[in-house]
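Repro:
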Amino acid sequence: MANQIAIFDTTLRDGEQSPGISLNMHEKLEIAKQLEKLGVDAMEAGFPISSKGDFEGVRAIAQQVRKPIITALARAVPKDIDRAWEAIQEAAKPRIHTFIATSDIHMKYKLRMEPEEVLKRAADMVAYAKSLCPQVEFSPEDGSRSRPEFLYQVLEAVIRAGADVLNIPDTVGYSTPEEFGALIRGIQKNVKGIDNVVLSVHCHNDLGLAVANSLAAIENGARQVECTINGLGERAGNAALEELVMALRTRKDFYDFNTNIETEQIYRTSSLISSLTGVHVQPNKAIVGANAFAHESGIHQHGIMTNRETYEIMTPESIGLKKSQMVLGKHSGRHAFEERLQELGFHQLSVEEINEAFQKFKDLADKKKYVMDSDIEALISSELIQIPETLQLDYFHITSGNSLISTSTVRISREGQVVEEAACGDGPIDAIFHAVERATGLEITLKDYRIRAITSGKDALGEGTVTIEKNKRIYVGRGISTDIIEASAKAYINAINKMLYDMKEYPNGDATIEAM
């Protein structure tokens, strides 16, 4: 269909390249399953040559996620392409995505190759990838800053070599919508064989124009768009999937294009990825921010009460948010709780997972008068990804005050052994982190720590997010509790458990290399 736009999600590849994000295989698989529910046409599962962990994650996704095209990224070199094919060969719909830079600045200073060498390498490697995989996508890295005549040559060569998809990246987010639209128009006009392939774009957001550039490309003939949930990605990120899709849906009168995205899954997907990556969505973020459907101005509130269309161009329900929250409490029954889980999008929980979630809900309801939707989402999300809990926090005690040295005592269980330790610190959080370190005997580098309230009020559920580093690997831990010190301690131990699990899986390390 000429007006159908394929959505290619690269959250698991380009999104994970965001500074401070590192997902383990189980987290990647959970995200991939949610992206499948969202209805993406293709997902870039990772960059298999970059690390053993990335390879295993891509392979697990290829084996278990069947509806979308599963793509693996590879530089235009045989070893990358071999590794990519090894990772995705069991996919129902596999695709190798290979790339090489075509701009003068990249060829001269990064590749140190002549244009003729780049041209030959691109064609040869696309042909090699096509000999292994039924679908091949090719990207001329830094395409928007490439000389058009040379870019046309490269694209024609890879079409002859068997490329099925040509993806044009605005790698450094330099283009403007008018320029990028003209580039796509020029490719349509000047590249022989372009009618036999899918033309795709991949826009970065360095100037805040990624979505606008992607829409300009669609207007000029692009029929696949690469994007990420919440706009994650290197530097300023990528085109945000939710913004792009809702722009096409909300302004169908102008664009008249369709996607296969189940927009009611957008909020759930955004929340899951925010939770697992530790990258929280800014309140004023378009579509999925906490304020996206909030109205404080008296004039706005009056207009909304009279007719929602006065200030809302889309409904909260269209992205999966409910009009009003059902407030549950300690007297609420299991049936009401299960019904609320269904409404929040948790459709595939097992009986055991529901039982465990219900017990946690009851425990929380004993501490809070009312349990809100966001509380329930936080409880479930914290339990979705289970890794072995090598360390468990049995007990903690804090002494702190503005005229006291903060001290903490903790009791930690580790594989049947119980250790108690105490430590001082510059405040209660610092003290409890030091006590955990002494109890575990581990040297840990704390890279980031954040605490936030999930709901409002003095009994709000607090969420602690901790980022630690070990052997140049990043681990993000998360903990929730009505006590922010307990939430912080749980987050720290969660991050350490991820680190210990990773060290067991890859005892010789898991060094990574950078993608484009």
